[in-house]
From TrEMBL:
Lineage, uppermost ranks: Bacteria, Bacillati, Cyanobacteriota, Cyanophyceae, Oscillatoriophycideae
Location(s) in or outside the cell: Membrane
Keyword Transmembrane helix tagged: yes
Source organism, top-level taxon: Bacteria
A GO term, aspect molecular function: oxidoreductase activity, acting on paired donors, with oxidation of a pair of donors resulting in the reduction of molecular oxygen to two molecules of water
InterPro entries: Acyl-CoA_DS (IPR015876), FA_desaturase_dom (IPR005804)
Domain Fatty acid desaturase: 36-247
Natural source organism: Crocosphaera chwakensis CCY0110
Cofactor(s) for this UniProt protein: Fe(2+)
Official protein name in the record: Acyl-CoA desaturase 1
Membrane association type: Multi-pass membrane protein
GO CC annotation terms, alphabetical: membrane
Major location category of this protein: membrane
GO BP term, example: fatty acid biosynthetic process
């Protein structure tokens, strides 16, 4: 894999404009005319749907790591919800995440935390990075799937469709809060897993990188903040290994397992669950 420093990488102006636009439009939420308690409720509900079910459960634990198996229809539903988080299409997201784990906190890592908090949180996305070219090699299991390709290629139109539904349900307040405020929330809370959990917290296991368990990131991301545990046991569906490490997504997987929708659930060794 070819490596280049951030100083030598060309800017991706499409992403820069995309990110800036979403954040700027989200500021319209501060106008009193755009606020309602219903709109706030829509934002938090969709934050859970797209962040918890889509990104954390779907993109991450199910598809990226195959820590459990689910019926294909449920997998597609979770992938669709993850696409609504607008963090890139599922193929790109999964590929870059797998590359991150293979090279964690070394130069080929797309968001190597040794380059600083800003780089690992957001900066890496604002450049054309070498890892983008390696995504097909790390997504052999999904890159030819028609549904994954639909979500990959039509992420923005899918989001526009959700925006139209919200507009007809509650006007511009629903759009501002349900799309833009919600996206900013999901963006930064997810990015904290790349940045904050490689800087703040404690290490319970040897993972050969800077990953740490950070309680407040775990709270914001439904259990993803127990990041040192995850890097030590990437295959494990459960990230909160100690009894006090609350992992909402693990509880969700247990419910799915109870009703027969999650099978072959992979776990860290029992001796490491304190």
């Amino acid at each position: 894999m070819t490596v280049a420093t951030s100083q030598k990488l060309p800017y991706d102006w499409t992403i820069i404009i995309y990110m800036a636009s979403i954040h700027l439009i989200a500021l319209l939420a501060f106008l009193p005319s755009n606020f309602s308690w219903q709109a706030l409720g829509v934002a938090f509900f969709l934050y859970w749907v797209t962040g918890a079910l889509g990104i954390t459960l779907g993109f991450h634990r199910l598809v990226s790591h195959r820590s459990f198996q689910a019926p294909k229809l449920l997998e597609y539903l979770l992938v669709f919800l993850g696409t609504l988080a607008c963090q890139g299409g599922p193929i790109q997201w999964v590929g870059l995440h797998r590359i991150h784990h293979k090279y964690s906190d070394t130069e080929p890592d797309p968001h190597d935390s040794n380059r600083g908090f800003w780089w690992s949180h957001l900066g890496w996305m604002l450049h054309h990075i070498p890892a983008d070219n390696d995504v097909p090699r790390y997504t052999q299991d999904i890159k030819d799937d028609p549904f994954y390709n639909f979500c990959q290629n039509f992420m923005v139109p899918i989001q526009l469709g959700l925006g139209l539904i919200l507009y007809f349900l509650g006007g511009w307040p629903f759009v501002i809060w349900g799309i833009f405020v919600r996206l900013v929330m999901v963006f930064h809370f997810t990015w904290f897993v790349n940045s904050a959990t490689h800087k703040f917290g404690y290490q319970s296991h040897e993972s050969n990188d800077n990953s740490r368990n950070c309680w407040w990131v775990a709270l914001l991301t439904f259990g993803e903040g127990w990041h040192n545990n995850h890097h030590a046991y990437q295959y494990s569906a459960r990230h909160g290994l100690a009894w006090w490490e609350i992992d909402i997504t693990w509880m969700t997987i247990k419910i799915l397992e109870f009703v027969g929708l999650a099978k072959n659930v992979k776990l860290a060794p029992v001796s490491d669950n304190k």
